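Thought: the user wants the 3D structure for the chain below. I'll pass the sequence to the structure tool as-is, report back what it returns, then summarize two notable features.
Action: structure_tool
Action Input:
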Amino acid sequence: MMKTNLVVLLFLFSIGLGNAQNIEPISPTEVMPGWYKVSILYPYEDGKHFDMDYYSQKHMPMVASLFGDKLKHYFIDSGLSGRTPNDPMTYIAVGGFYFEKLSDYKESFGPNAEKIRGDIPNYTNIQPIVQISQVIK
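Observation:
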């Protein structure tokens, strides 16, 4: 089961790379300290839905194309479990974006916020949690 989970995670990681125009695939080791990461977390809740196909094939590539060259990388994770493989997942999905400067995110998101938020009902009825972080290592 552990090997299967790793294969699934590697697949999901790979589909989050290079799907948008002008976004070159990079490995996590190429993410630079000092960059900014915007994580969008979708908490798992009974009775809620999340369409991973739509999210990975339409929503995230659309957002990446709106962000353009200021976006350095984006990722998509699909939740499998909590702390242990037998615990329920905490998040059904996590998506995120890497920017060299925080101002690049603000300038990219601001003018596109309505379009991005307006697409959320097409793949989920979960209220996402957003976390902005600075990469340390």
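Final Answer: Structure generated. The chain has one domain: 2-134. The helical segments are 2-15, 52-67, 102-109, 113-119.
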